[in-house]
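Researcher: Go.
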Amino acid sequence: MSKRDKTPAAEFVSVTTVDELKPGERMVVELGRHWVAIFNVDGTYYAIDDVCTHDDGPLADGELRGCVIECPRHGATFDIRTGKVLTPPALMDVQSYDVQIQGVAIQVKARSG
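Model: Structure:
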């Protein structure tokens, strides 16, 4: 971190293990001040905020079809790979996170600042 850059770089944080999140499963973890939904889709891991941008409802409770999650409240859909909103009533994308595997640990890149 340089003297001019007072914001620390985001770091990867271990949130669970591959044994605890099997293919087809999801879990919600607290990462800083945010609830983050972690998904295992056929052995590939994705992470998004667990908050619908339409009404702040929990996304992880919705139906997952492939890489598309449907908000259980009003049916907005999001791509869990990118956080991109696909259908209304939500109009804004949801925050997505980089995910990496270190040994058996599933790590999510925390937001900086």
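Model: The chain has one domain: 12-109.
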